[in-house]
Design brief:
The chain is α/β, with parallel strands linked by helices. It has twelve helices and 21 strands. The protein has a single domain, classed as FAD/NAD(P)-binding domain (3-Layer(bba) Sandwich), CATH 3.50.50. It is about 25% helix and about 25% strand. A hairpin with a 2-residue loop joins β10 and β11. α1 packs parallel to α6, α1 packs parallel to α12 and α3 crosses α6. It starts with about 25 loop residues before the first strand and ends in a 29-residue tail after the last helix.
Length: about 450
């Protein structure tokens, strides 16, 4: 049985075993927060929608992330959708009829250099444009919020209306809400490939059979590029391993979410803290890394030491050296080899987090690890997602590359994706999220890495 507040695994019982219908209006691939919220808004609009998840709902990044729900630091194109998402989160617990762990206790970014303070100040222009309650804090104001005898923070960026939820509680609860709204959800049901007829989507072939449909939403997280490539769609997506751990119960040092460039922390419902590296990940080199290296040049130049490079991924991972790039629908696909990406947490990352935490809070010392885990964060060259129709394959909508930002913005993007699929106005400019930006000669413009 899953411990509340910790990642979902294959030990979690199957909660959704809908017999597949012969046809639907829309099939969604992937049961993370993006797929779940898209399914909810589609079903709420009367569409016949089926969500297929190869493992468990929220089994990958949607139960492994930090749990932050933040407007602060967002790319300007994401920001209006995130403002909407923040508002939606405030009512989702009541709609779902369950505790999502949602609370608005604020997000605080901590600066150790004048350059970081200047970057924070520059971002406040975006906050003002959207009437967000973000403000700069002085060093003294930071110490009032987070008393520390050792941390040398020069100031901070604070948004009181930002918050958090408990990912492993929230996303499964939202899936149950989507099912009550009329969505059909099938766990342990991998979509092997698209059924293409006359040059457009006519259905999907799953391990349990075919579903006829006119549209498919690809929200497969770290698996999306592999799926798309099998159909000739080039999606320059890579993934990084991010390690997280929950501490044993600790005295409250701060009720909200906070981060500097060394470590991040947020209060948990169980009285501990979720701790993670601030902006440091591990990258497992595979074929796609060489294929897309030039597109990631801007990221590498801006933060050359933000990642530790590993020579290969475990067997059968999306970009492992031996993972097939092409397959048919009459035999098991790569998605059935690994139902849930469950990378081992990095001892190096855990040691780094413990060191930085103890340095900032010597009165508490080295935090004890209650449970550690890791996840594969899907990212794009500009750290901004793709939300777009695949022009070369009518009927396919790509919704991936959330770059570690997907949990908080999930409700807003779910509503946007549903309206995109239904041919309605999304209410937002999605030009920044177009897939063609990686092939039409546009420069790679990095989103904020605050």
């Amino acid at each position: 049985m899953m411990m509340t507040g910790f990642p979902i695994s294959l030990n979690s019982p199957i909660a959704h075993a809908t017999p597949l219908p012969k046809s639907a209006d829309i099939v969604i691939i992937g049961g993370g927060v993006i797929g779940v919220m898209s399914a909810f808004y589609l079903a709420q609009s009367g569409a016949r929608v089926v969500l297929c998840e190869k493992g468990r709902i929220a089994g990958e990044q949607s139960s492994r992330n930090w749990g932050w729900i933040r407007q602060q630091g967002r790319d300007p194109a994401e920001l209006p959708i995130m403002v909407e998402s923040n508002r939606l989160w405030q009512g989702l617990g009541q709609q779902a009829g369950e505790d999502l762990g949602f609370t608005q206790t604020g997000v605080l970014y901590l600066a150790k250099t004048e350059k970081e303070m200047a970057d924070f100040e520059a971002w406040t222009e975006h906050a003002r444009a959207h009437q967000i309650d973000t403000r700069l804090l002085t060093a003294a104001e930071v110490r009032q919020k987070i008393p520390s005898n050792a941390a040398q923070w020069l100031g901070g960026l604070w948004t009181a209306s930002d918050g958090r939820a408990e990912p492993a509680k929230a996303v499964p609860a939202l899936a149950r809400m989507a099912e009550r709204a009329g969505a059909q959800i099938a766990e342990e049901c991998a979509v092997r490939l698209l059924d293409i007829q006359g040059g457009r989507v006519a259905g999907v072939v799953t391990e349990q059979g075919r579903i006829a449909c006119d549209q498919v939403i690809l929200a497969g997280g770290a698996w999306s590029a592999l799926f798309a490539r099998n159909h000739g769609v080039n999606l320059p997506q890579l993934s990084v391993r991010a390690t997280v751990f929950a501490t044993e119960p600790l005295p409250e040092i701060f009720a909200g979410n906070a981060a500097d460039d060394d470590f991040a922390f947020r209060r948990r419902q169980d009285g501990g803290y979720t701790l993670a590296p601030g902006g440091w990940h591990e990258f497992m080199v595979g074929p796609d890394a060489f294929r897309h290296i030039l597109k990631y040049r801007a990221q590498l130049q801006k933060a050359p030491f933000a990642a530790r490079f590993l020579p290969k991924a475990p067997a059968s991972y999306p970009d492992a050296w031996g993972t097939p790039r092409h397959w048919g629908g009459d035999r098991p696909s790569p998605f059935e080899k690994i139902r849930i990406l469950n990378p081992d947490p990095s001892p190096i990352a855990i040691a780094r987090i413990q060191k930085f935490f103890a340095r900032a809070f010597p009165e508490i010392g080295t935090p004890k690890v209650r449970k550690a885990w890791a996840g594969m964060i899907d990212t794009m060259p500009d750290v901004v997602p793709v939300i777009d129709h695949a022009a070369q394959l009518p009927g396919l909508i790509i919704a991936t590359g959330m770059s570690g930002h997907g949990f908080g913005i999930g409700p807003g993007f779910g509503r946007v994706i549903a309206d995109l699929a239904l041919g309605r106005s999304t209410g937002h400019d999605l030009g920044r999220f177009r897939l063609s930006r990686f092939s039409d000669g546009s420069p790679i413009t990095l989103g904020p890495t605050l």
